[in-house]
Design goal:
The protein is mainly beta. The protein folds into 5 domains: 117 residues, Immunoglobulins (Immunoglobulin-like, Sandwich), CATH 2.60.40.10; 92 residues, Immunoglobulin-like (Sandwich), CATH 2.60.40.10; 133 residues, Sandwich (Immunoglobulin-like), CATH 2.60.40; 110 residues, Immunoglobulin-like, CATH 2.60.40.10; 109 residues, Immunoglobulin-like (Sandwich). It contains 2 helices and 46 strands. The strands form 10 sheets. Strands 20, 22, 24, 26, 27 and 28 form a 6-stranded mixed β-sheet that branches. Strands 30, 32, 33, 35, 36 and 37 form a 6-stranded mixed β-sheet that branches.
Length: 657
């Protein structure tokens, strides 16, 4: 019994020992969640490897746990990262990152290495450690560098520099265009460079076209032995026709001042903008006939400067005259942004050049005040204030000076300068002091940027006073469900001068004064006077008074045979003895024939001067013209002409004797 019992006990011990040994043998440490164990790196760069160290199937813990990093991966191996000691608990993991620096001189190729693990385990037995295998492929670093030494222009070549920055010789270096807006050629190609060597190459543009203000660009490439580098070359734009040349003129400053709603680089429709340009002659020679010009280019490169409404007569070009060496002078451009101008992005450009030497010899178009040096970015915006969506342009009041009882007209273009379409717009016309009101509805849709025309006719009341009245225009819009929901917050006002309403009396000389106030002579301007056609009569009004006076000019007694189409000037301010011409345009009725007449009137200071003018209307080619009841003047003229002819005849006879 005893032997059997001992055998059983020994067998049980062996089984337990086997189980315990098996437990110790199954304890493992693994690298899990690995990133970067196989990668390609360039010379002079770093390889980053991330992972977790995980312990499983053991009790206790690892103290002083650490990584075992290989020391012979490269010719000069440098590790960094999470390489310090740590504690690894059972069935847990610890994140680690290591960085291997690749020497710039490392020979390209494939390299293998292993990262392992070690630590102090507080129980007996040896755990299984599975190392982390690493495969690094080293490739040559970028060994070619390209630099721009001299920029190309529209008329000159550029220069680039090619350098070998690597550690081995580059052979058969090929230069080529990679992409871009124009072509290039190179002064040399297929050359070699030893490490550290540089070479300058001339680059010539072709098929460049017109660079405009923004300029044009192309990208070139240099390649050799599997290495390559690229460089973008730019041809700068220029407002000068041949680019900036000469070097005498300098644009010292460009001051943009917006007097309207916008800012210096954000303009709104109807803004008034002022641009002051200072130009200096920095050279040693005088520059004759210096012109300063501005341009405004849209996104397509088209110059839209002609669309602006300039105050100065020379518009976009102004003459500085001669500029001596060391002198500085300035010009000021003032313009208004019209209501119908397209919104969007624009480029404002400025140039100063010699009109005498020629723009191709002396021209400058850059300034530090411009945000792109050769131009200023301008954002032209539509009106976003709902109370200012409607604007009036090309407003004409005819005539500008009227008298009581006369009719006048106002015409205007109505623009939608806002950022919303309008289904319907009502334009309101009024002269408050004369109690005149009218309105007109535009019902054909006035979308943003659209315009329509309105026309108002009115008669000056007989009780009007001699003064300047203000015509007001306003608008209602945002039409919905039969109502206008928005109106302009300000009136547009236009002056109308009323004169002659206080003139009293009639007949030549007027009551209380037997002296004449004016003389009236007239002549026919039209070649023919025919039914259905217009006849133009020019009258000369001379002030016979001893003081300066204002004369109200009118016409009467023409209604039975014609209509008065217009009078060139209703009010004449004349100094004593001064004369001015006034033209009368009459539309002859279709059935008018024979001699007809009308009265020209000049009224001043309560007195009236009149003159009857007679016209002979005929469908034939011949026409005649007379002074009505002043025919005696023509008789005297004929007699004088006969006397002059007789005197000349007698003088000739005497001289022959």
């Amino acid at each position: 019994m005893t032997n059997k019992t001992n055998v059983l006990k020994f067998s049980t011990f062996l089984l337990l020992a086997t189980v315990l040994l098996g437990a110790f043998a199954s304890a493992t440490v693994d690298f899990v969640g690995v990133s970067g164990s196989s990668q390609t790196v360039r010379q002079g760069s770093q390889a980053v490897i991330s992972f977790k160290v995980e312990g499983t199937d053991f009790s206790g813990q690892f103290d002083n746990a650490h990584l075992i990093l290989p020391s012979n991966v490269f010719s000069s191996t440098v590790w960094s990262g999470d390489t310090g000691s740590f504690t690894l608990l059972p069935n847990s993991n610890v994140s680690r990152t290591v960085v291997l620096s690749v020497p710039s001189t490392q020979t390209p190729g494939s390299y293998n290495a292993q990262i392992s693990f070690a630590g102090d385990y507080n129980l007996s037995g040896t755990p299984v450690i599975h190392p982390l295998n690493i495969v690094l492929t080293v490739e040559a670093a970028q060994t070619i560098q390209l630099r721009e030494k001299t920029a190309m222009t529209k008329s000159t070549n550029g220069v680039i520099e090619v350098e070998n920055t690597g550690s081995f010789t580059l052979t058969n270096i090929q230069l080529s265009k990679l992409s871009g807006e124009f072509d290039v050629s190179f002064s040399e190609n297929g050359f070699s460079l030893v490490p550290g060597q540089k070479r300058e190459i001339t680059v010539s543009p072709s098929n460049l076209g017109e660079p405009g203000l923004s300029g044009r660009s192309t990208t070139i490439r240099a390649s050799s032995n599997g290495n390559s580098a690229s460089l973008t070359l730019n041809v700068l734009g220029s407002f000068c026709s041949n680019g900036a040349v000469g070097g005498n003129l300098t644009i010292r400053s460009v001051d943009i001042s917006n007097k309207g709603e916008g800012s210096e680089d954000e303009w709104k429709l109807l803004d008034e903008v002022e641009i002051e340009v200072d130009v200096k002659n920095n050279g040693n020679d005088n520059v004759d006939n210096v012109l300063v010009e501005i341009g405004l280019f849209d996104s397509t490169g088209s110059n839209q400067i002609g669309d602006l409404d300039f105050d100065n007569a020379d518009e976009e070009q102004m003459d500085l005259g001669d500029l001596n060496d060391g002198d500085t002078d300035s010009v000021i451009f003032t313009f208004r942004i019209p209501a119908d101008m397209e919104d969007g992005s624009y480029k404002l450009a400025v140039k100063a050049y010699s009109d005498d030497a020629g723009e191709s010899e002396e021209c400058m178009d850059t300034a530090n005040d411009l945000n792109k040096r050769s131009y200023q970015d301008i954002d032209l915006q539509r009106e976003d204030d709902e109370s200012k969506f409607i604007a009036f342009e090309n407003v004409e009041v005819s005539p500008l000076e009227v008298t009581c009882g006369e009719s006048a007209t106002l015409t205007a273009d109505v623009f939608n300068i806002g950022d919303q379409d309008e289904d319907q717009v009502r334009v309101n016309f009024m002269i408050p002091d004369l109690q005149i009101k009218d309105s007109y509805e535009i019902k054909s849709n006035l979308d943003k940027g659209d315009n329509d025309k309105v026309d108002f006719s009115f008669i000056i009341p007989q009780n009007a006073q001699d003064k300047t009245y203000q015509i007001r225009l306003s608008a209602d819009y945002d039409y919905r469900n039969g109502n206008y929901r928005e109106s302009l917050d300000e009136f547009a006002t236009f002056p109308l001068k009323v004169l002659g309403c206080n003139v009293q009396g009639s007949g030549s000389g007027g009551s209380g004064n037997t002296g004449r106030i004016a003389s009236i002579t007239a002549n026919l301007v039209s070649d023919k006077i025919e039914p259905g056609k217009e006849a133009v009569v020019r009258a000369t009004i001379t002030n016979l008074k001893s003081t300066r006076s204002s004369f109200v000019i009118g016409a009467s007694d023409y209604d039975s045979w014609s209509s008065l189409s217009g009078v060139s000037q209703r009010i004449l301010d004349l100094d004593a003895g001064q004369s001015k011409d006034v033209t009368f345009t009459l539309k002859i009725n279709d059935d008018s024939q024979g001699e007809q007449s009308f009265i020209i009137e000049a009224l001043a200071d309560g007195q009236t001067e009149t003159r009857e003018v007679a016209l002979d209307i005929s469908s034939a080619s011949g026409t005649s013209f007379s002074f009505g009841n002043n025919g005696f003047i023509w008789v005297i003229g004929a007699v004088n002409l006969l006397l002059i002819i007789l005197i000349i005849f007698v003088a000739v006879r005497i001289s022959r004797r």
